[in-house]
Amino acid sequence: MAKIKDTDYLFSTARVRSVEKYMLTRERAEKMIDAKTTLDSLRVLNDINYGHGNEIIDPNNYEKLLSEEHKKTYDFISSIAPELDYFNMFLYPYDYHNLKVIMKSEYLSFDSSDILVDTGSIDLKTLKYAVKEREFSSLTESMGKALDEVIETFPKTNDPQQIDIIFDKYCYEEMLNAARETKNDFIIDYIKLQIDVINIKTYVRLKKMDKSWDFFTKVFIGGGDISEQIFIKNYDDSFEKFAEQLSAYGFRDLFLEGTEELTETGKFTTLEKLLDNKLIEYVKSAKYIPFGIEPLAGYLIAKDNEIKIARIILAGKLAGISPELIRERLRETYV
């Protein structure tokens, strides 16, 4: 990649600052929750430039609106970023999601058209063709290796979970390698934090399912600050005791709060919300950097978080969930 200086981001940072005012604030999220109908909630998004002008969105088809907003966000960053390759990593999870779906639909014979997403770094048609023809030159090297491993492994095990495990490991390994190529601490530390969050969620879920530590080693994703040994050596400890191991990594208090709720109710909602909030709190530091890659990366990550918030609210409204319960699930906003 070409060497990009922070000053090369002066124009693009200014452009990002100009659109941050249209993001979903806590006040706007509350307005969506309190709206009488799902359509009224969608109008709040329309007011902050979701959709196309005064186009009326079918409340039952809000996913199309959210997908379009994600694509619009990346197209915006693409149009202003001095080096686009630095941002592809944030789309890799969508590419790998699509690869999972395509491979499962091939092996398990089901129609996957409604669960593929058109927001990855690689065009869907390209992915489908690559898998069908077993010709991976149009994909990244890591994606090709992941596909080779899945193709070799699945026929031996017939276990769809292996597809998820293999693709997840390659996905976050590729993201971390791409982050390191930027030589930017903000991006590198964000990806590492994301990996830690995923591993903590996995650890808790497997413990609640009475899965053994050796199964955890199969799904553990390397590259985060919290080593595999921290989890393995303390795998049989209570959540309260394990929380002390997380103190050095800044997870202790939220882990205790989230697992206390989990123990009392059996619900993961609080823990998952607190872990997601930790990620967005980290990203908020990008708002205070005058110029550079950080404001662009922060905005891209924050928009992804914003779309998740909108999805939680809209899904809750359509399902008739009370405003109070929707608020319990609501993540922190970026602005």
TrEMBL record:
GO MF entries: proton-transporting ATPase activity, rotational mechanism
Family matches, as InterPro entries: ATPase_csu/dsu_sf, ATPase_V0-cplx_csu/dsu, V-ATPase_V0D/AC39_subunit, V-type_ATPase_csu/dsu, V-type_ATPase_csu/dsu_dom_3
Keyword entries, A-Z: Ion transport, Transport
Pfam families per the UniProt record, alphabetical: vATP-synt_AC39
Protein origin, superkingdom: Bacteria
Family that this chain belongs to: Belongs to the V-ATPase V0D/AC39 subunit family.
Name assigned to this protein: V-type ATP synthase subunit C
Organism annotation: Sedimentibacter hydroxybenzoicus DSM 7310
